[in-house]
Amino acid sequence: MMLRVLAPLLIALTLPAQSVDALIERLDRLERDNNTLRQEIERLRAELGGLKQQAAAQSETQEITARRLEEQAQTKVEAAQKFPIRLRGMALVNFFHNGSRANGADTPTTAARAPGRATSAVTFRQTVLGLDFRGPRTILGAEVSGSVFGDFYEGGTEATQYPSPRLRTAEVVFEWKTRSLMFGQEKTLVGLRDPNSLAYSGVSPMTAAGNLWRWQPQIRFEQRLAFTAATQALAQVAVVQTAEESGGTPGALSLERRRPALQGRVELAHTMDASRRFEVAGAFHASTSHVGPYSIPSRVYSLDWFANPFRYLEFSGILYAGQNLHHFGAFRQGWAVTPAGVHAIHTRGGWAQLSVPFHSRVSLNLIAGAMDDRNRDLTAAMIASNRNAAANLVFRIAPNVLVALEAMRIRTLYLNGGLSRNPRYDLSIAYQF
Fold it and tell me: Which of 49, 56, 106, 285 would bridge 300 by S-S if both were Cys, CB 3.0 to 4.6 A apart?
């Protein structure tokens, strides 16, 4: 220790004066460097203290944020119990001209026996309003969704200025990955498809001419199967409530207005590429109408399809055969009353549509449909057959605005009244939302 203290002094005494001055200058510089280093250390300590305070403040902020997120998550869970709702529909205006055998209807489905007067008018009553909702996953992992749609078609004729609102379709669907369960009012399984038309929205196109369109309350189960990535199958079964309203029932016989029915459908679909697809399905319906002491079977077997083998060609439709079909929106002559009793009327029919989408904004639809009842089952005043043919050209002038021109000709054959014809021409403008 003594040597460390005396060593610089002894060195200084033995060195020349110039060397001593240089040593002193070096010691001064070293002292200044030490002072600078000390100041830097104090500054770093101060900054470190500030960082600790900032970290503590950030930690507190994060804790507050976490609490708020937790509160928001709880609020979201509560809000998720209320299904989000979306408004959907179509504001539709129809400018139309009907021939003299429209029998006063804005959208005639048959030609009247006797001529009346031709009419031209405009109507908004085919406008459709609806709500869609979708809920959280619930009930064994099923996703809940649903919808309800209505229009103003009910009771609307040229003599009715303010038609009444009407429920069209409604459904609540529980959907799993490969199956679904639906409770609602929809088209039945024997007539799921519809032709394309804006002129006929209140009733489906080709009503009473091959389209079994009537919306019916039902419970429907679906099972989806995938054989390959391109080939799938769909199996459906439904319990349906029919609306029994056939005409010709004598006052002495009571009619049970609602009856259960069983329906089934199996569809096979194959996707050829991104724009080409083929679908074909077979379906059946079985129920019984109760008219007084009589039980009248209602049976339908149908085949429906869709195919677009080429980019600019689509072909779709349905064929069916059966008996007592009045509750599907067909003729209201499901059975006939004779002196021998009451018996079902056998019928067959269907419709087909050829669509040509020239462009994403322009498409042409050619539609034909027919319903033909078996003559020997009919009484003198009944309709033997009804055939409709229509063509419409649809322009999409904006992403959600459609303009369509349509012409239709209805040919109705009465068993004892000959053939009646009625033309209809329509200009439709639709705003979809």
Answer: 285
